[in-house]
């Protein structure tokens, strides 16, 4: 096959992928010699080919919008098994080839036996080939490759057999045989066998769903399309692709119906060239030689998203740097080398594995294990391990390893031969991962010169495979190997240090530090140097130089004295590279510079000139930007510094200046006390200087310049020059002043902390006093001051200001806000006995004066102060007269009357409906409106619906009912198809079978394309031809089993015996009859078409929107905000067969509108556009996004990262997964204290806790070294055993992390985990995308695209942990990994909880914790204080955790009820500026879908009343009012519909089924075609019908509306469904909901209906007058005496009811499109108007009966 195409770097053909599928096809003649390469061991005998080979068919669209199919050949499914190394010379080529050949034949034989095939029949021609029957050839090739085991930490290559098969369907059979000892007599562990053929191919060639495929060549099959017009730019016609086409007489027949079809070989796929191998794990590469570049994108999908955003920003003129695109990292980017685990000079911290509660115990066990291994083997060095990995056990790797391909290189095995340079040791050693920047390349130290090898040396494995049987022994110099083991390890360690320093120097170039910080530090040090050498008078420059050296900067005179800045990391030389660099710096020097030091001189305040603000740059700090609190971290102790002897150690600048930045954030507040480190003599001297040097200060006057000075007997030095407002001076007598002064002195001497006045500003222990010296020194300050005469007068202290009192209340433990408790506003509602619940006693009182708490204060009682008696409530003060309230004016009276009238009207309107909560929108939509606008999605969608007249009221049956019409809507980008509706890109129409109803075009829709066919068969053929012509990518319908495409396929099969799905597929040849797929029937659709996606819209919407009922009418209302009618099959048939043409046209309009709404639903829910973007991000096909699980998507990410690093992932069997240990760790879900919290509750949430934990602690399969302590004497790890070689733990001792559950992992310095790479880039990319959304708010299409991307990234980050913990259905689980993540997250929450409880200034209590969130209770705090403390807690917890673990502030509940785990409700504020709170509920009936609307309404209204008023009397009154409506039947049936999922066929016959299933069974008995789909939500109502069981009383809404004898079971609903959820809430506040209902009067209205279905209560007579409502029978005496009034009342009521019926009928007629006067046939159970119309019609019938009363009146007409 020719591979010619465009020039190198350009694609000859480019297509956007819409669908990928794997199929089998006979071999092509042109590839006959390439299918089975002769140099590979195989089970296929020479001269024979298997009957079929796998072909990957990639359907897509070219850049000119042509439909194309690319057939990819020679891309076989494969898996790996470990190569047996049980030999002295295991890699000898003859042995390798022999094992590969025997394995291929043996596995092929086992597969044949499993498939009941006879491989040794009479037609067998070769014993080694397993027979020449092409159907019996399954194993194509077996080759030796090398890779790194992924399941556990392994260093160095292991060897594997790569097994390629001829059919992906045989993979499962092969795996089953490998787990048995039938292949070569042993059990083999498969690897990478759980990956599907399509996903395996996409990972190997860097392809993504709905992405681009670039081809450098290929061969087009004939016939080729002709160019339509001259203006078709880019149209791939015959003239343009003739050089890439087969010869006309040699072209293979077309396999598809696409416009273009091209055959492609793997090497012609240019996408793979974007992948580069990363050889990192054959040695300690990351630790000793080459750390990973911090800015390199390793996840290919993330790289494309970054490049896409970079191009978009460049087009808008915005910055394209990573800092501009990613303002805050979410995945741990920017961590220092020390945080990554590298050794940093000057930071010799002993590693203990972690900082957990049992870390010391775990490390002690680990050290004991290290000591045992050291005694057994001795100490290991890195060089010893590296040389052992290069030579092997017996030196077998020295000669043969270089000829063995890695797993990444082995993808090209079996490709057609091309000119390639033989792989040598030289090319292998020099192949390293090259960072994109020149700086990173300069940092990598040169590798030792490799030995010269002959590049023309033949591959011994290929030679042995062909003809050679000679024995080639490995030539190993044992003496040389022993000599290599004894070499010194110093060079490797030196390279490690150099690499660390170079990488750290690069990281120290991220964010600039302030020049003021450096200047203040240098000036401070200059002052100290002057103080220490008072005899010297140095110049300014020399003093600064010595200050720099004293600080640890070394020789940085050029940096300090000249405005030189560090250049770009790409520059070859900078001043900092030519001079010494700092080693470390004292962290708290900034804090000391703000306090008095040893020097008598004050610190300099003038900034030093000559230093540029951009002199040194650093990475960003971790603390979030907030205005609430300073950093909770305390300064570290100073460290001694030494200058480095090494010439280039720029990384120490980063360490130093990072500490400067941290110290700057830890400056003491302005009111901090003086440092206790200074001697008392210095304190006295400085205080004296301050008192004497500052103007306006004297020993007796605090501030002579103040407005009103205050004189007092000074008992202590007070240097606070506070200014108070001008107030009246209160003088005290000398004796009182002296007594108070003496008392103050004695109190200070006895107990400084004992203060009677909490607001005494002269209190030295008051932390709010900013100038009090530290009292803990050995000496004391004589601050008694001058003595005054005993008869002198002094000014008394001014009272504290209001602001000071409010701000200091929390300091003294006083509540700043008083929150009321629940109460009864009506004293008669107070229960006679106290409520007892859950061991607590509630004494709820009223808010009247009688129950007010007595005032608690220390005010002296006055004789004129009358106090209310609290002993009894009868005593009242009777002290004279008082003025009464003036009478209201006319305006007030008129306004009051208007309000009363309005309230009365509202009460009448609400008398027949339940009162609902205030909704976000007045129409009851559950979702924000999304305009159904079509975004260019490059995927065409064809939607179809059919109409078939039925028999009676039965649904259409394809076995009996013929189709009369088909309706279509084609979403496309084809400009040749006109838009037939108001939406762009919608081409809709219908095709009708000519009949009596449609004769002479009597029924048509204006402006809509219409096609007429002669018969039903012509209709089917028309649909087939249209599908082939338009070639849609997606086929969709609302319900595909009983209607739409499914009905059409069933009708074609049962009526005409044709396979409709095969006729509309994209493949020419049939793929065989579709097998019955139970999963597809229950989860997706049983209707499948090869080469096209099929969408069952209602099932797709179940995962897109959250609704109680998923009927078509309900989904249209909530998603599209339209009310549409619903008609029964009988009504539609009657309209179609009507003699009126308008009725037939109405049927056409109904179905035409319906199919267009299908398209609008898909666009509004973003089904195609969003899932297409998900496919690009996940790297899977469009179909897999919707119908495959999360593990499949995680594997797409994981394999794309693992393959370039030659990781081999294991495939456990179901039995092996079940042999894992049970999970040890459980998430922290603290049992909350169930109560009502009226004080603020702050909700804090860890941002992506589990992904952050995996990144921060480097948790992954590939970094795990197993358990600290062996499990029952074994190295149990997941489903297998992980054996770590002796000495490895001690060798990596300084680079280990031990999780709280006792599992050991290496730090990122040794190996950055694959999960950390994946999750880090996912979180960073999501932050970048969300940041980009802020700049795209005006572009709806771009916002929709970016939102889909960030949702996909969020989903992927959240499901990664589940991939490791799937213990039942897991594809590669590991319980040790999952436990490590869970236990680490649990202890992270516990540490946060301990920190919160240890800070007394917060006075906070954690009342509930749930996996990754904390509920913090703040008693007595205001909303603003709650926000302040919440942000402070979030910053403090974030600071004590490693990056990227971050605690985020989420919301504040002002009023909250926590009932149980995951069940809470409250009024939330998300921002301090929020004025009105939002109702927020989790896990209760207001948001659950297993209840009914009345339950949700009543509970939400009661909760809002509680949170807003705390008045239980209001709640009690509201509940009683609603219950009275239910008992009287003045409610809508729609509020009591219960809808639950029904799964027929899964219920046990031993117990009654649920009511929904019983309703479904009754529906099936009436109509077998009316069977609900699997997991469909079936609506029903519990009626008052006879029967004790619920299944006997459950009825459908249509049955309830059809019979007046049926009504809701009010007692059941109230007692069983309404009271229990209310009781669970109000029991926590002392309310007795059951008693409220039991004590209310309950009256029942007599039913006025008869007939055969009448109940006994229909025969009861009413005692009330039907005119006035009074007692006295149907017509009381008073009404009889006033017949004119009675008649007017009766007739007025009848007129009002008829008017209401007429209004509702007009509403329904306008919706359904029927003319006035006709019967409305709509019976939509989702429309409230229909229930109101039925109720009004019943009231009209009752009003008509009132005419009989007029005959009893004495009327004169």
TrEMBL record:
One of its GO terms (molecular function) is 4 iron, 4 sulfur cluster binding. Residues 416-459, 593-646, 715-784 are annotated as: Disordered. Keywords: 4Fe-4S, DNA damage, DNA repair, DNA replication, DNA-binding, DNA-directed DNA polymerase, Iron, Iron-sulfur, Metal-binding, Nucleotidyltransferase, Nucleus, Transferase, Zinc, Zinc-finger. It is an enzyme of class 2 (transferase). InterPro entries: DNA-dir_DNA_pol_B, DNA-dir_DNA_pol_B_CS, DNA-dir_DNA_pol_B_exonuc, DNA-dir_DNA_pol_B_multi_dom, DNA/RNA_pol_sf, DNA_pol_B_thumb, DNA_pol_palm_dom_sf, DPOD/Z_N. Pfam families: DNA_pol_B (PF00136), DNA_pol_B_exo1 (PF03104), POL3_N (PF24055), zf-C4pol (PF14260). This is DNA polymerase. It comes from Cutaneotrichosporon spelunceum. The lineage of its organism: Eukaryota, Fungi, Dikarya, Basidiomycota, Agaricomycotina. The gene is REV3.
């Amino acid at each position: 096959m020719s591979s010619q195409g465009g020039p190198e770097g350009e694609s000859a053909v480019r297509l956007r992928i819409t669908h990928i599928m794997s199929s089998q096809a006979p071999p092509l003649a042109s590839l006959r010699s390439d299918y089975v390469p002769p140099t590979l061991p195989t089970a296929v005998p020479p001269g024979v080919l298997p009957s079929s080979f796998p072909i990957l068919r990639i359907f897509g669209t070219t850049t000119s919008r042509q439909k194309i199919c690319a057939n990819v050949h020679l891309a076989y499914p494969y898996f790996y098994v470990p190569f047996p190394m049980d030999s002295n010379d295991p890699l000898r080529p003859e042995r390798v080839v022999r094992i590969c050949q025997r394995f291929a034949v043996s596995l092929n034989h086992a597969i044949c036996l499993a498939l009941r095939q006879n491989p040794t029949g009479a037609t067998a021609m070769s014993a080694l080939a397993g027979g020449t029957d092409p159907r019996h050839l399954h194993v194509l090739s077996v080759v030796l490759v090398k890779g790194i085991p992924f399941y556990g930490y392994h260093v160095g290559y292991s060897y594997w057999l790569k097994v390629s098969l001829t059919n992906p369907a045989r993979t499962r059979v092969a795996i089953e045989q490998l787990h048995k000892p039938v292949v070569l007599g042993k059990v083999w562990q498969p690897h990478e066998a759980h990956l599907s053929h399509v996903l395996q191919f996409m990972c190997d060639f860097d392809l993504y769903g709905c992405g681009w495929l670039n081809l450098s060549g290929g061969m087009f099959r004939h016939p080729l399309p002709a160019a339509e017009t001259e203006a078709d730019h880019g149209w791939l016609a015959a003239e343009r692709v003739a050089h890439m086409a087969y010869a006309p007489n040699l072209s293979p027949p077309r396999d598809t119906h696409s416009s273009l079809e091209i055959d492609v070989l793997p090497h012609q796929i240019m996408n793979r060239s974007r992948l580069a191998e990363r050889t990192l794990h054959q040695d300690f590469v990351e630790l000793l030689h080459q750390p990973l570049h911090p800015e390199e994108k390793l996840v290919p999908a993330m790289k494309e998203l970054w490049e896409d955003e970079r191009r978009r920003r460049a087009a808008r003129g915005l910055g394209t740097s990573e800092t501009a695109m990613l303002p805050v990292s979410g995945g741990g980017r920017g961590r220092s080398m020390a945080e990554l685990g590298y050794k940093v000079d000057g930071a010799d911290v002993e590693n203990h594995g972690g900082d957990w509660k049992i870390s010391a115990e775990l490390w002690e066990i680990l050290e004991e294990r290290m000591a045992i291994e050291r005694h057994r083997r001795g100490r290991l060095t890195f060089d010893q391990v590296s040389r052992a990995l290069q030579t092997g056990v017996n030196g077998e790797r020295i000669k043969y390893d270089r000829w063995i391909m890695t797993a990444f290189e082995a993808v090209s095995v079996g490709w057609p031969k091309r000119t390639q340079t033989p792989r040598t040791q030289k090319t292998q050693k020099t192949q390293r991962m090259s960072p994109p920047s020149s700086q990173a390349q300069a940092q990598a130290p040169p590798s030792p010169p490799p030995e010269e090898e002959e590049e023309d040396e033949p591959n011994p494995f290929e030679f042995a495979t062909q003809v050679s049987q000679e024995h080639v022994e490995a030539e190993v110099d044992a003496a040389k190997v022993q000599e290599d083991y004894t070499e010194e390890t110093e060079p490797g360690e030196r390279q490690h240090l150099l690499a660390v320093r170079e990488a750290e120097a690069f990281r120290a170039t991220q964010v600039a530090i302030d020049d003021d910080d450096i200047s203040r530090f240098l000036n401070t040090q200059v002052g100290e140097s002057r103080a220490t050498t008072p005899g010297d008078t140095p110049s300014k420059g020399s003093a600064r130089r010595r200050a720099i050296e004293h600080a640890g900067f070394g020789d940085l005179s050029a940096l300090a004295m000249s405005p030189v800045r560090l250049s770009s990391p790409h520059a070859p030389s900078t001043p900092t590279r030519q001079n010494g660099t700092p080693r470390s710096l004292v962290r708290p020097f900034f804090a000391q510079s703000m306090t008095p030091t040893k020097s008598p001189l004050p610190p300099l305040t003038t900034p030093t000139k000559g230093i540029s603000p951009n002199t040194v740059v650093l990475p960003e700090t971790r603390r979030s930007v907030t205005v609430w609190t300073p950093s909770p971290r305390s300064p570290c102790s100073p460290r001694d510094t030494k200058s480095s002897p090494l010439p280039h150690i720029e990384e120490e600048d980063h360490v130093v200046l990072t500490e400067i930045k941290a110290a700057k954030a830890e400056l003491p507040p302005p009111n901090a006390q003086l440092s206790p480190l200074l001697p008392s003599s210095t304190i006295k001297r400085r205080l004296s200087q301050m008192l004497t040097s500052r103007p306006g200060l004297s020993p007796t006057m605090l501030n002579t310049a103040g407005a009103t000075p205050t004189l007092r007997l000074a008992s202590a030095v007070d240097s606070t020059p506070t200014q108070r407002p001008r107030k009246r001076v209160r003088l005290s007598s000398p004796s009182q002043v002296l007594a108070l002064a003496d008392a103050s002195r004695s109190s200070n001497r006895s107990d400084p902390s004992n203060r009677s006045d909490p607001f005494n500003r002269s209190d030295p222990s008051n932390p709010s006093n900013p100038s009090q010296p530290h009292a803990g020194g050995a000496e004391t300050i004589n601050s008694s001051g001058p003595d005054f005469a005993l008869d002198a007068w002094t000014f008394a202290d001014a009272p504290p200001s209001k602001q000071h009192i409010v701000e200091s209340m929390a300091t003294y433990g006083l509540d700043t806000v008083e929150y009321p408790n629940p109460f009864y506003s009506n004293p008669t509602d107070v229960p006679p006995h106290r409520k007892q619940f859950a061991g607590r006693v509630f004494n709820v009182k009223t808010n009247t004066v009688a129950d007010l708490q007595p005032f608690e204060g220390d005010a002296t009682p006055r004789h004129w102060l009358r106090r209310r008696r609290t002993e009894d409530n009868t005593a009242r003060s009777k002290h004279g007269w008082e003025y009464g309230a003036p009478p209201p004016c006319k305006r007030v009276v008129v306004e009051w009357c208007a309000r009363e009238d309005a309230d009365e009207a509202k009460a009448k309107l609400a008398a027949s409906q339940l009162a609902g909560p205030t909704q976000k929108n007045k129409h009851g939509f559950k979702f924000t409106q999304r305009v159904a606008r079509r975004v260019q999605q490059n995927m065409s969608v064809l939607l179809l619906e059919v109409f078939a007249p039925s028999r009676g009221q039965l649904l259409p049956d394809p076995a009996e009912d013929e189709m009369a019409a088909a309706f279509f809507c084609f979403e496309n980008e084809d400009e040749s198809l006109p838009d037939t509706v108001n939406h762009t890109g919608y081409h809709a129409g219908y095709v009708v079978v000519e009949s009596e109803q449609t004769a002479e075009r009597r029924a048509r829709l204006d402006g809509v394309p219409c096609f007429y066919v002669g018969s039903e068969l012509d209709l089917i053929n028309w649909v087939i031809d249209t599908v082939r012509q338009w070639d849609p990518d997606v086929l969709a319908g609302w319900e595909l089993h009983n209607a739409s495409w499914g009905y059409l396929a069933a009708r074609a099969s049962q009526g005409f015996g044709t396979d409709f799905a095969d006729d509309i597929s994209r493949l020419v040849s049939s793929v065989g009859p579709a097998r019955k797929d139970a999963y597809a029937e229950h989860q997706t659709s049983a209707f499948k078409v090869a080469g096209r996606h099929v969408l069952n819209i209602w099932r797709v919407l179940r995962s897109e929107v959250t609704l109680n009922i998923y009927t078509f009418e309900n989904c249209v209302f909530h998603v599209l905000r339209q009310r549409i009618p619903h008609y029964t099959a009988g009504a539609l048939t009657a309209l179609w067969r009507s003699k009126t043409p308008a009725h037939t046209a109405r049927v056409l309009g109904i179905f035409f509108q319906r199919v267009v709404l299908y398209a609008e639903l898909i666009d509004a829910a973003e089904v195609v556009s969003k899932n297409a973007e998900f496919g690009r991000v996940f790297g899977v096909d469009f179909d897999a996004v919707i119908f495959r699980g999360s593990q499949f998507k995680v594997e797409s990410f994981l394999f794309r990262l693992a393959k370039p690093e030659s990781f081999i992932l294991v495939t456990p069997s179901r039995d092996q997964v079940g042999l894992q240990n049970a999970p040890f760790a459980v998430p922290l879900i603290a049992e909350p204290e169930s109560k009502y919290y009226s004080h603020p509750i702050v909700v804090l949430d860890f941002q992506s806790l589990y992904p952050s934990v995996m990144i921060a602690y480097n948790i992954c399969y590939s970094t795990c070294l197993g358990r600290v302590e062996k499990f029952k004497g074994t190295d149990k790890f997941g489903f297998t055993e992980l054996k770590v070689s002796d000495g490895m733990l001690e060798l990596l001792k300084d680079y280990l992390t031990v999780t709280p559950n006792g599992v050991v992992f290496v730090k990122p310095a040794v190996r950055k985990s694959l999960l950390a790479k994946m999750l880090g880039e996912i979180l960073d990319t999501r932050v970048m995308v969300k940041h980009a959304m802020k700049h795209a708010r005006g572009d709806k299409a771009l916002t929709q695209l970016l939102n889909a991307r960030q949702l996909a990234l969020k989903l992927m980050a959240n499901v990664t942990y589940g991939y490791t913990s799937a213990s039942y259905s897991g594809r590669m689980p590991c319980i040790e990994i999952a436990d490590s993540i869970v236990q680490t997250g649990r202890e992270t929450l516990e540490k946060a909880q301990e920190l919160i409880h240890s800070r007394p200034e917060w006075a906070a209590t954690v009342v509930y914790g749930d996996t990754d969130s904390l509920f913090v209770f703040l008693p007595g705090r205001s909303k603003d204080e709650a926000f302040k403390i919440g942000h402070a807690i979030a910053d403090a917890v974030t600071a004590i955790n490693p990056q990227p673990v971050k605690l985020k502030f989420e919301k504040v509940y002002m009023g909250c009820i926590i009932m149980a785990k995951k069940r809470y409700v409250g009024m939330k504020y998300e921002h301090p500026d929020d004025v009105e709170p939002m109702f927020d509920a989790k896990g209760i009936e207001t948001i659950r879908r297993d209840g009914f609307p009345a339950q949700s309404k009543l509970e939400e209204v009661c909760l809002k009343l509680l949170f807003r008023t705390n008045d239980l009397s209001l709640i009690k009154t509201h509940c009683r009012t609603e219950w009275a409506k239910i008992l009287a039947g003045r409610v809508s049936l729609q509020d009591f519909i219960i809808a639950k999922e029904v799964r027929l066929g899964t219920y046990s016959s031993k117990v009654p089924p649920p009511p929904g299933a019983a309703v479904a069974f009754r529906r099936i008995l009436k109509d077998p075609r009316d069977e609900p789909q699997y997991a469909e939500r079936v609506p029903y109502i519990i009626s008052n019908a006879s029967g004790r069981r619920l299944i006997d009383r459950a009825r459908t809404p249509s049955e309830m509306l059809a019979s007046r004898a049926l009504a809701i079971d009010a007692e059941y609903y109230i007692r069983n469904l309404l009271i229990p959820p209310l009781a669970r809430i109000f029991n926590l506040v002392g309310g007795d909901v059951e008693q409220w209902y039991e004590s209310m009067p309950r009256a029942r209205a007599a039913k006025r209906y008869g007939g055969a279905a009448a109940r006994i209560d229909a025969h009861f007579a009413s005692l009330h007058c039907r005119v006035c409502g009074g007692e006295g029978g149907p017509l009381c005496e008073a009404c009889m005496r006033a017949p004119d009034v009675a008649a007017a009342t009766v007739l007025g009521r009848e007129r009002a009811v008829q008017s209401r019926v007429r209004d509702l009928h007009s509403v329904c007629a306008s919706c359904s499109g029927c003319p006035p006067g006709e019967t409305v046939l709509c019976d939509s159970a989702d429309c409230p108007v229909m229930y109101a119309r039925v109720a009004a019609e019943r009231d009209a019938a009752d009003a008509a009966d009132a005419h009989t009363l007029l005959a009893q009146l004495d009327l004169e007409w």
